[in-house]
Amino acid sequence: MLHHRPILAYISHNSATTLLNLMVILSTMSTIVHISCNFEATCDKEKSPHPQEIIEFPSVLVNSMTGQMEDFFQTYVRPTCNQHLTDFCKELTGIQQIQVDKGVLLGDALLLHDRWLEEKGIKQTNFAVVTWSNWDCRVMLESECRFKRIPKPTYFNRWINLKVPFHEVFNGARCNLREAVQMAGLAWEGRAHCGLDDAKNTARLLTYMMHRGFKFYITNSLVWQYPEHPFMMHQIMDRYSGPILHHHGSRRSLAPIFQLHPQMDPSKDPCLYCYCGVKSSKRVVRQPGPKHGTFFFGCGNWTSTRGALCPYFEWAT
């Protein structure tokens, strides 16, 4: 189900059990900032299910010239590996089983979100994704798309980790999102661990930093993993053809806020991350045979005594 209503509130913080994807897309041409916020994921109190799967996909649009939140996208996502939410997950996120049962698959959620950006005119501009931490783009979305072989839009492969500019503005302060919002003198609004509310709070923090004149830059990137499967807009099914636009007025303007970090080269960030969320280890095949001496990437938590903790595997090229 898609929900589109006026944007009044904000976003939340990241945790190991509920993946909060806080992503912002900044545009200097159409002056739109898109915050794709808080991928809430399957989780449990003691040990999260493997693999974790996204169950809420929210995004918020912010005008980068005015700092105003203008629209949002939200859909619930149906998990396919661990289809039943734990009681802990339902209590923590507020997401109920019936909502994910009626949700869309992750591939369809990505298509719907991409079409929404297209209809808003964002894809024709210079935009970037913004997160609170690297977990959301580097680990959660990337690992699930790789695990399920789902094509992923390339704009999710480079992003602004809002923690980095926050540390610069607040002299190296290290805190979670909620604490960061409070340090900025803002009141937290909405329900904790609700992806959309978390996203809106992140948007408020971003707006605060905009008004302080901070110049944002790309902080991290990934190598696109599915070049043979371009992300096609025409794959969206007819049942998703309803209107999904909503506009709001703007207020005072600010200077453009997007630029590349002068020391950052996206083409030189080849790091891969396993399903555990840690940097994958590069190893070599030592057994005799046709693959002897060939390098591959595997679970970053692998040891010679216990083996791998996740099934991640990729041949090195």
Q: Which percent band covers the strand fraction?
A: 15-25%
Q: Give the class-level CATH name of the largest domain.
A: Alpha Beta
Which fold name fills CATH's third level, the topology of the largest domain?
Nucleotidyltransferase, domain 5
CATH architecture of the largest domain: 2-Layer Sandwich
Provide the low-confidence segments as ranges. 1-32, 224-269
Along the chain, the helix and strand elements come as EEEEEHHHEHEHHHEEEEEE
CATH homologous superfamily (4th level) name of the largest domain: Ribonuclease H-like superfamily/Ribonuclease H
Structural class: alpha+beta
Number of helices: 7
Protein name: GRF-type domain-containing protein
Organism: Kalanchoe fedtschenkoi
InterPro entries: 3-5_Exoribonuclease (IPR051274), ERI-1_3'hExo-like (IPR047201), Ribonucl_H (IPR013520), RNaseH-like_sf (IPR012337), RNaseH_sf (IPR036397), Znf_GRF (IPR010666)
Keywords: Exonuclease, Hydrolase, Metal-binding, Nuclease, Zinc, Zinc-finger
Compact description:
The chain has helices spanning 87-93, 97-101, 106-120, 135-148, 163-169, 177-183, 195-211, and strands at residues 23-26, 32-36, 40-41, 54-63, 69-76, 129-131, 158-161, 216-218, 220-221, 258-260, 281-284, 295-298, 313-315.
